[in-house]
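In the previous chapter we treated chains in isolation. Here, by contrast, the input contains two separate entities that must be folded as one system, with a combined length of 584 residues.
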Amino acid sequence: MCRMNTLIKNAARNAVSVNGLRKAYGEKVVLDGVDLSIGEGEVFGLLGPNGAGKTTMVRILSTLVQADAGTASVMGYDVRKEAETVRSVIGVTGQFSAVDDLLTGEENLFLMGRLLHVPLTERRARTAQLLERFDLVESARRTPATYSGGMKRRLDIAMTLMGRPRLIFLDEPTTGLDPRSRYTMWQLIRDLAADGVTILLTTQYLEEADRLADRIAVLDRGRIVAEGTPEQLKRRIPGAHILMRFADAASLDAAARALREGSRDDNELVLRLPNEGGIRSLRDVLARLGDGVAVEDLSIHTPDLDDVFFALTGNPSKEQNQ
Amino acid sequence: MTALTIAIQDATTMLGRELKHTLRFPLLLVSTILVPVVMLLLFVYILGGPIGHGLGDAAHGAPYVDFLVPGILLMTVASGCGPTAINVRIDMTGGIIDRIRAMAVTRGALLAGHVGGSVVRTLGAATVVTGVALVVGFRPKASVPDWFAVVGIVAAFSFALAWLSAALGLVAKSVAGANGSTLPIQFLLPFLSSTFVPADSMPAGVRWFAAHQPFTTVVESLRALLTGAPVGSTPYLALAWCAVIALAGYLWAQVAFRRGPR
């Protein structure tokens, strides 16, 4: 009985739970049995390359598309049977700009307020508040045609927030943005998370998921191939390494003798060492190197998305041999 | 709030958005006015002479312009189809449609806004076109109740064609395709009706089609009302056609909308 209660409680605390979700478009299988759960207040990163099924996942959870099989619930409501209720608790910012180009920024927000039946005075206050928060006050009376990519994205998310959703889907929120806008967007997402909003974020960038998400799932060809905190995932991924560059061949030789591992490139005068142990192994490498060897340049490389996919999904040529 | 008041409120919101769009981007409205006006001038000043002489009894002794203008009003309604299909298609192309579909907004509100906007635009365009017609010599003999009937039929036909255009816009694969698919409504059907010449002057095969298709019924009812001829049951028949087209377009549009953008 006690165990039963715990189970129910856990179920209620899930903002999203997905079981055995499948979706195919004709012959093409997009989601091939996905299980997923996101706790309330969590920032969850769905990481994967183009065509992995990230957008389809978001479209199913936001009631835009129906799954072929499996179940999905959002805030405890079934996305198929209780779609209307689901829509009232979520906010969606899709991959493509969903702002009205012929209305001004302010009118776009106001339109959302009207469609959400926010009372007039509150609608006005909330519009002003969101314009302020998303740094759009000066461009409020202009149409998005004159906005930069980053401004359009900010308006897009501001529109999503008009209804005070408890769960927000952000489908590749920084794709196509310049570095500065990307940084601003990250800060905005962190602020949302601080307000206690649950966020499902899809991204192609490991760095982005790493910086923002409490938990990450890696989606590849319609399957979740790994799930965990960013730290847990990174530990599973080989590919972290140190690159050392030397001024001359003699120094490179000396370093290679002292370390007795890694791979050397005599043309570039570069030594590459695996660095799975983080700072601890870096310290070890430097200790073994001693003071006698002059290193011109040293850089630490953490795994990128390519490494993740080689590690988690296997080399495509290897797969063919199996 | 009841479901109905919410639905009306949502549809009104969308209508407001659509009218704002028209004001911000008036080009489509201008084309809706320009096409019938050019047709009017073309047929009154260039082609109308010999046609008018050949009309005989069909014009009930009135000048050709009086025969023509009801048909031009019909063309005004028909030329509103292009912008409606285009606007629906543009909405489906952008991300805004997904945003609205993922919100707890009354399902049909977006399309209702487009259809309402289309009717308002068409009535505006028809007013301008009627003004031009009066300038070039159109002398209607309609009474005040007749005028109300004319406005009612124009609005009803516009409403019907707008649902059909919305459906065409939803199933079109591109914006250009959306406009293209309305061209038969804009040009082919008006020409193959008694818009410019009476149906019984046409070759046998076409004559039967022209005499029985809805455009002829609508234009005949407008013509009778505006020239003061006996109207008989044609206005009712015209409204029945409007109801059938509106219902078919509405159902088609609902199915296409539910299927979502491509």
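The radius of gyration of chain A is 24 Å. Residues 240 and 276 of chain A are 6 Å apart (CA to CA). Compare these points with the single-chain example from earlier in the chapter.
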